[in-house]
Amino acid sequence: MANVNTASPVASQRLMSLDALRGFDMFWIIGAEPLVDALRRLHDTPATRFLATQLEHVDWAGFHFEDLIFPLFVFMVGVALVYSLSRTIAQEGKLGAVKRILRRSVLLYVVGIIYSGGVTNAWPDIRVSGVLNRIAVAYCFAGLLFCFLKPRALIAVAAGILLGYWALLALTPIRDIQLDKARLAERAEQMGDAQAAALLRGAGNFSAVKDSPAWAAAERVFFATTNRVTGKFDKGYNVVDHFDFRHMPGRKYDVFFDPEGWLSMFPAVVTCLLGVFAGWLLTNTSVDDKRKVIYLLAAGAVAVAVGWLWNLQFPVIKKIWTSSYVLVAGGYSALLLGTFYLVVDVWKLQMWCQPFVWIGMNPITLYLTSNFLGGFRPLARRLAGGDVQAWFNNHVAQGAGDLLVAAVALSLVFWLANFLYRKKVFLRF
């Protein structure tokens, strides 16, 4: 499935800052969040509450640090593909690059399905889209566009997708109904269909049940609604979610729609393209390093400002990957990349980030390992849970035992990352 690379971990042209930033991003995904939550329980202060809040997704519109983690990774995929595909094109030509893109995209998409449970359950209780699937699609289309379009054309494509996506969501009429169990049940009662109302108030994910009566009831209520509206961006009440409800197969994460749905794949490609633009800048030998940092920071600040300004009309919403969200997340990603590039590759202050580099060299491997283990915390509890955790909570401070378990879990992450790094085992999908 994966290629095991035994080459030197610091290859020519490889940016340590990019590996460090990728590891920093994964650090929050696979272990840091429980650590911050444990700190909040240990010392419940405004500062720790703020940090804990930032590590929670906003329910719908808005932006927390947690909402940056996924697009930051997609952005870095775009940066990295400039280096990898440029080398492939030079060695094997564009046809070789296309084969590489398609092979890696299909493999990662399949791995994404396995990550979400694979074929453990019978159809339709199989999720066909998720985080890894979105990364695969974004990489595929961004990579193909990179191979065949020049920078100006690629900028035009990115702008066209963002504007087109806005127009699609703002101007396309949808049925005047919100895809929510309570709202659908209420509408069913208004229609005089008490049986449908009772079904829609039931527990469980209707989309995962074959020939589900509740799903059929939702469809009856949905298609019975004939009034049309435009310019709606609420949860379950927008073009993207309605499209998922009607056309997306398999188990949907939010019952009637999915945060990694079909239509929102298009702006996710632009997130990857923003990384491509950053990668072009970093590989441009005619621009000195300090100017590269200035350009990254300036572009990031402008993108954030434009995104939040656009938010006034087109809200920043991660779950449907709005165009304003693309700019805000992409801008913050550029700011982080510029900062890491300045500190790590320009100033050469590199010792502090080495643990992040270990993680950043094997991000998907660690992500899958965490998934297959149910997270690193269950293993950490075997080492520091039970009476050990209780003793620290009771005799040191309330929450100290939870902090110990979270710290042990993070230590396991760093140990595994370091082990793979030292053995020069790097799994490339």
How do the strands and helices of this protein lay out in sequence?
Layout: E1 3-5, H1 16-42, H2 46-54, H3 66-115, H4 131-148, H5 151-171, E2 174-175, H6 181-190, H7 194-200, H8 213-224, E3 228-229, H9 239-247, H10 265-283, H11 289-310, H12 323-346, H13 354-360, H14 363-373, H15 377-384, H16 386-395, H17 400-422, E4 426-428
Antiparallel strand pairs: 1-4, 2-3
Q: What does this protein look like?
A:
By secondary structure, the protein is an all-alpha fold. It has helices spanning 16-42, 46-54, 66-115, 131-148, 151-171, 181-190, 194-200, 213-224, 239-247, 265-283, 289-310, 323-346, 354-360, 363-373, 377-384, 386-395, 400-422, and strands at 3-5, 174-175, 228-229, 426-428. Strands 1-4 form a two-stranded antiparallel sheet. A two-stranded antiparallel sheet has the order 2-3. Helix 11 packs antiparallel against helix 12 and helix 13 (354-360) crosses helix 17 (400-422). The longest helix has 50 residues, at 66-115. The radius of gyration is 23 Å and the shape is globular. The termini are close together.
